[in-house]
Write a structure and sequence with these properties.
The protein is 28% helix and 35% strand. The chain is an alpha+beta fold. The strands form two sheets. A six-stranded antiparallel sheet has the order 5-4-3-8-7-6.
Length: 179
């Protein structure tokens, strides 16, 4: 057997050899089965989260509260430091962080500014406007040129995705980690 892998073992005595029972041991590698089981459990957790989030929108509460609750559920499920929705304000050509959830178990600095004007050619968000990418994942931001602003705010890793409404760019959903 290979170390570090799951295996199922069983042992028992069978029949006999010269009137004496013979011990038989059986070992089977079940790593693939355990991996498949873990994947199915993770998918079940994700489906459960999606069901809970969808059901939470069937409520008389206002949209801001419902979105805040959804961000909280997503943040707690993923274990990140911050989850936010930055809505594109066309009149200002800016992103407005209207909805932000912070992990209460982590020392996460609060945003001092919530409206961020954009410039043509803006590195991270330009592909979203042109709808040529469906997400951006940044790990170890300290080594990436052009992301000094995020690094200064404490973000170490980030994943974001644009959301469209009626075929037009509407907002950016971001998951940020400060650890």
């Amino acid at each position: 057997p290979r170390p570090g892998r799951y295996r199922k073992q069983s042992a028992r005595r069978v029949g006999g050899w010269g009137g004496r029972p013979v011990p038989v041991q059986l070992a089977m590698d079940i790593e693939d089965t355990k991996s498949a089981q873990a994947l199915l459990e993770k998918r079940l957790q994700q489906q459960s989260l999606m069901t809970t989030m969808a059901q939470s929108f069937l409520s008389p509460q206002d949209a801001g509260t419902l979105i805040g609750n959804a961000l909280k559920m997503a943040g707690e499920f993923t274990g990140v430091s911050k989850v936010s929705i930055a809505v594109f304000k066309e009149a200002d050509f800016a992103l407005s962080f209207d909805y932000v959830w912070y992990n209460q178990d982590q020392d996460v600095p609060r945003m001092q500014q919530t409206l961020f004007p954009l410039e043509e050619g803006e590195g991270m968000y330009e592909p979203y406007f042109r709808q040529v990418v469906d997400h951006a994942a940044l790990d170890d931001i300290a080594w990436l040129p052009g992301y000094e602003g995020m690094l200064c705010s404490g973000v170490r890793a980030s994943m974001s995705a644009p959301l469209s409404l009626d075929g037009a760019f509407w907002c950016v959903l971001s998951f940020d980690d400060f650890r």
